[in-house]
Amino acid sequence: MTDRPFIPTRIAVLTVSDTRTPEQDRSGDTLVARLEAAGHILAARTILPDEHGEIANQLRAWCADPEIDVILSTGGTGLTGRDVTVEAHRDVYEKEIEAFATVFTHVSMAKIGTSAVQSRATGGVANGTYLFALPGSPGACKDAWDEILVKQLDYRHMPCNFVEIMPRLDEHLKRKK
Fold first, then answer.
1. Among candidate residues 176, 68, 66, the one with its CA nearest the CA of residue 132
2. Positive or negative torsion for Cα 128, 134, 136, 138
3. What is the residue extent of each domain of the chain?
4. Which of 85, 79, 10 shows the shortest CA–CA distance to 47?
5. How many CA atoms lie within 13 A of 65 on its CB side?
6. Interhelix angle for 52-64 vs 85-92, to 10°?
7. 10-163: in CATH 3.40.30.10
8. Residue pLDDT tens, the chain, 177 long
């Protein structure tokens, strides 16, 4: 860490599930507890069914909201027919953060061995907003937050982090003067 000040980000949490209710959303609860403990702000939270269009529309709406810096979704990253979260994320991304999936797989391998190959966790950027699709288990959400996101969403983390480049994520959209 450095002498830099902590800069809280505003994070939306989306749980993708055909069956979970707010009372049963352990993965969403895990993310909310961790982001708030780290000093970030819960900007929005909802649960949607595994429906590609609904997920993509929610992601786009949150990316358009200037009060949201980061979107964390949980669920729908597996290999079954109803797992469409990754496809919805990729429909929204302007740029994919390929290394997020690689690092997440590395972290998962240490915890669950070769079963990590079944995850399709992904990350990207759209409209100046970071988006991360995490598996639906509380353990996977914990691992993604504790091993990757808590560091990359902390301006004090060196040598670099996601927060320090936030002001430049949409620079390609600005007109020349």
1. 68
2. negative
3. 10-163
4. 85
5. 17
6. 40
7. no
8. 568 999 999 999 999 999 999 999 999 999 999 999 999 999 999 999 999 999 999 999 999 999 999 999 999 998 888 999 999 999 999 999 999 999 999 999 999 999 888 889 999 999 999 999 999 999 999 999 999 999 999 999 999 999 999 998 877 766 545
